[in-house]
């Protein structure tokens, strides 16, 4: 049985027959979750009935809509509430590895003139003088069903070395259970240059519409020229110059994080394979830098939610490849990525645009080198490029039981004890609230004279004593 559905705008369609093999092959499933994005939720009923008929009552299927986080990630939290043994993810996907439960991806299928796409990209590359030693071809997940045609057409029309970014469907087995402890889950997609060709000497051909996938591709490959082909307009354009402006915004966020003393570690999706290891690493880094940190999970981010955490100076979002970057223009505090936090703690000494990444596995590999923190200079005033002023960082004692004497912070009181030892009193929460500029409505305590007591009304609301009857 085959049920195809399409959207009027993009004419994207999927075939639910492709979801039946994993459902049938799963060992004694009891619940199967079908996750749909908002734009495909209208077709969930037809797919649900087809899947329920295919499994012949051996399991119960559930439709998941309005995902806890972004629709590009598997909604592991909702699956754990069912609980579900298998998750079938429909629509666009960020392809961030997860191993909390088996996930099977069903991508939308959009039409594409592969020959036209190849000819337009090659012609634009020659016109823009962007011909390099090698070429990397990347396509949106909605064109993955045409992968064989893309490889065949570009291979015959390209004269130099070319590589293709294939999508590997995840395989869940018992050997991968331990990967959650190390964060070394296999990547579902790699963008690698042709063998023997440096990445900076390659040009990237992207097939797909403008969106977060293209923006993330530009930012993570700032040293490469990126040409994008739009199937809707049928045109190809050079889009890589916009990456420098995007990375300049991220550098601004890094400098704001350098002036922060209290950090909030926001876990976007608990199902990501590398998120627990990255979270532990960030905690250790902040403790080494003597910064205070809090861990939280708030679901979908919005300015109103994060505004409730006023004491936090900077948020660190541990998210997927596409949803891990949030423009903090509307937020009260900056939001940085784990890699940007590492740069902020090291004083942005290692800022290299070509090394910018949101991939959690890559961050774990790079974090194997210890941070080069100069703790002896922590008490020295630091110059901020944001406001042009000097500030003295607040060094928080993260090891209260150590026998070493820490430098006294601001607002701390040193008391002499009878044995000539020094005790340190840290600021209390009430002192912090008293230091806040906004304290709510004016309470006017002690400014107004007490009012004299007066006798109130007697009776009931229908008619108090002494009132004239209205009837």
Structural account:
- The protein has 471 residues and is α/β, with parallel strands linked by helices.
- It has helices spanning 20-25, 44-54, 76-81, 114-127, 147-157, 179-182, 212-220, 242-258, 275-288, 303-306, 338-345, 360-366, 429-435; strands at 31-35, 60-64, 86-90, 103-106, 134-139, 162-164, 202-207, 225-230, 235-238, 262-267, 292-296, 314-318, 335-336, 382-383, 390-391, 413-416, 422-425, 459-460, 463-464.
- 25% of the residues lie in helices and 17% in strands.
- A hairpin with a 6-residue loop joins strand 14 (382-383) and strand 15 (390-391).
- The chain starts with 19 loop residues before the first helix and ends in a 7-residue tail after the last strand.
In short:
The chain is of the alpha/beta class and 471 residues long.
């Amino acid at each position: 049985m085959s049920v195809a559905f399409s959207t009027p705008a993009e004419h994207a369609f999927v075939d639910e027959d492709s979801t039946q093999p994993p459902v049938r092959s799963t060992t004694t499933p009891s619940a199967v979750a079908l996750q749909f994005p908002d734009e495909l939720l209208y077709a969930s009923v037809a797919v649900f009935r087809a899947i329920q008929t295919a499994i012949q009552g051996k399991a119960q299927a559930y439709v998941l809509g309005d995902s806890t986080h972004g629709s590009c990630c598997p909604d592991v939290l909702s699956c754990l509430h069912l609980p579900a043994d298998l998750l079938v993810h429909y629509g666009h996907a960020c392809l961030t590895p997860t191993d909390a439960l088996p996930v099977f991806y069903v991508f939308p299928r959009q039409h594409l003139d592969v020959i036209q796409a190849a000819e337009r990209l090659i012609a634009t590359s020659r016109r823009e003088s962007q011909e390099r030693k090698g070429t990397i071809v990347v396509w949106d997940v909605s064109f993955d069903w045409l992968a064989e045609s893309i490889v065949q057409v570009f291979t015959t029309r390209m004269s130099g070395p070319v590589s293709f970014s294939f999508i590997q469907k995840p395989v869940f087995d018992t050997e991968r259970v331990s990967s959650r402890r190390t964060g070394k889950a296999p990547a579902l997609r790699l963008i690698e240059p042709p063998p023997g060709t440096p990445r900076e000497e390659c040009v990237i051909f992207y097939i797909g519409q403008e969106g977060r996938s293209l923006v993330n591709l530009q930012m993570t490959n700032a040293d490469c020229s990126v040409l994008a082909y739009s199937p809707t307009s049928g045109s190809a354009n050079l889009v890589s110059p916009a990456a420098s402006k995007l990375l300049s915004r991220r550098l601004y966020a890094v400098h704001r994080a350098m002036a922060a003393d209290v950090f909030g570690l926001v876990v976007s999706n608990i199902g990501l394979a590398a998120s627990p290891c990255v979270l532990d690493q960030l905690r250790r880094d902040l403790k080494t830098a003597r910064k205070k940190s809090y861990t939280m999970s708030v679901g979908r981010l919005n300015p109103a939610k994060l505004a409730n955490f006023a004491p936090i100076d900077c948020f660190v979002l541990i998210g997927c490849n596409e949803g891990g970057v949030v423009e903090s223009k509307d937020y009260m505090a900056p939001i940085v990525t784990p890699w940007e936090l590492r740069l902020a703690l090291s004083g942005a000494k290692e800022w290299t645009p070509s090394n910018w990444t949101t991939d959690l596995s890559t961050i774990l590999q790079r974090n194997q080198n210890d941070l080069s923190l100069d703790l002896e200079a922590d008490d020295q005033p630091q110059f901020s490029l944001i406001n042009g002023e000097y500030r003295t960082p607040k060094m928080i004692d993260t090891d209260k039981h150590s026998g070493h004497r820490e430098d006294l912070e601001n607002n701390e009181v040193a008391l002499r004890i009878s044995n000539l030892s020094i005790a340190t009193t840290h600021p209390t929460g009430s002192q912090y609230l008293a230091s806040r500029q906004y304290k709510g409505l004016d309470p006017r305590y002690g400014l107004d004279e007490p009012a004299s007591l007066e006798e109130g009304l007697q009776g009931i609301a229908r008619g108090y004593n002494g009132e004239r009857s209205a009837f």
